[in-house]
Amino acid sequence: MSEFDEYIRQGEPGAKVKAQAWQTAIGLQDIAAFTAGLWQIHPFGEGNTRTTAVFLIKYLRSFGFSVSNDMFAAHSWYFRNALVRANYKNKEKKDVAPDLTYLIQFLRNLVLGEQNELKNRNLHISAQSEMEHDSKCKNCTLNCTLEESALLQFLKENPKATQEMIAKNINRSTRTVKTMTVRLTEKGFLVRKNGKRDGWWEVKSL
């Protein structure tokens, strides 16, 4: 039994719910940082980038994202170099530090279906300032959890989905879905059109 499981077993009433909320309160920025850190450990003699990609795919699928290996295959060199840039720093040049920008752009394409340019030339140190300008977005969802991002992506593709349908897709309870839709509406990412019964959802952030 893991320490996390032990906490749930011995914890106070409601610990399981709190623990689940803690596990899912993570967004693309955090996932990028964790993925970069996992790759940086380099536990294998070879195949670390492929192993990291497989882990990432399986983890994102657990939230209901329909991700495959296609983007990793099409942009394998970019993904690997983005991991390098997320960990690289130059002690002699103070302005060269680990940068998650490129890995986050890859994740936004993978998870949110965006079309950010994934070119290896953009990862060159000299291209950094230009990339920082291009990476800005009007409706940034980096402050959304993965759970919220999964819900938004599903509703973008299925605007008339019921709470039961959403819950099934992201593997959460209908009660959790109701709480999430309220929170996302308050954040301005989600709008309910034409009432509760015959209406639909309009996603503002993707």
Give a structural overview:
The N and C termini lie far apart (40 Å). This protein folds into 2 domains: 29-134, no CATH class; 146-203, Arc Repressor Mutant, subunit A (Orthogonal Bundle), CATH 1.10.10.10. Mean pLDDT is 77; it is low at 18-25 and 129-139. With 206 residues, the chain is mainly alpha-helical. The chain contains 11 helices and 2 strands, in the order αααααααααααββ. A two-stranded antiparallel ribbon has the order 1-2.
Would you kindly provide a brief summary of this structure?
This protein has 206 residues and is mainly alpha-helical. It is built from eleven helices and two strands; from the N terminus they run αααααααααααββ. A hairpin with a 6-residue loop joins β1 (190-193) and β2 (200-203).
